[in-house]
Amino acid sequence: MEYLNDWLLLQGPLGYLLLGVAAGVAAGLLGVGGGLIIVPVLIWIFRGKGFDDALVVHLAVGTSLATIVATSISSIIAHHRRGAVRWRLVAQLSPGLLIGAWLGAVIAGMLPTIALQRIYAGFVIFVGIRMLLKAHAEGRWELPGWPGMGMAGGLIGAVSAIVGIGGGTMTVPFLNGCRLDMRQAVATSSACGLPIALAGALGFVIFGWDLNNLPSASLGYVYWPAALGILITSILFAPLGARLAHQVPVVGLKRAFALLLLVVGAKMLL
Q: Which of 70, 91, 119, 262 has its CA 20 to 30 A from that of 268?
């Protein structure tokens, strides 16, 4: 059984396809970004494949951001057809998101792998606690003007790029807290994931460009065999997760997933 697990998850492309299935279903079912699943699993796979340990976390984060470029486009199209995206808010947030994501990639590129891993672990633990407590701030604030939106976008973009996510775990609570209904907050957040992923992934490509000890088929800190495998199945299975959200008790699943995040975060932190 141990050999079978190694073969499935560490040796061949089937592991990346299975990871894409898990990320896609979780995104549709639980409303969480795929990066929360993709990054820790890729770290495990890359270490099992013998990649340079000083690079595995950067490779996992950069690869995760690259997959979000395509998945966010798919999500944007679906939400836009339903008229749920508030494009004016996307325009206000996007300059900050782009600059913040680029700076986040710069910061991540300068961090040693253990520091980046611990930052990611701390973020995962925070998200897990928040999901368990169901903390939200719906309708507490007014939407800020352009300067405030730019600052919010910069913070969201920077943190998202450092940990390899599309920013939904921060953008949705921010917009919902600013009196935007949850449906529009989720749809608008999906559109905000594209500038984060574009700037962040490009930054990880550039800052890993000249490294000699990257695995073959890498472009900077983006490992394309993993990115493409994840993309194929995550896009296909996200709609299944969305359908299941109307058929299964999501509240219990979210609590179970939150506990899983706490375990994963604690393990990575220690």
A: 70
In this structure, what token pair is assigned to residue 120? Answer: 């990611």
Tokens 């997959």 locate to 67
> What are the residues facing 222 on neighbouring strands?
219
C-alpha 126: how far from its chain's center?
A: 14
**In the chain, what are the domain boundaries?**
2-269
pTM: 0.89
**Helix, strand, or coil here: 159?**
helix
Paired strand residues for 219? 222
How many degrees, rounded to 5, is the angle at CA 124 between CA 121 and CA 130? 140
Backbone φ and ψ for 85, nearest 5 degrees, come out as -85, 125
pLDDT tens-digit profile of 64-109?
999 988 888 878 887 788 788 899 999 999 999 999 999 999 999 9
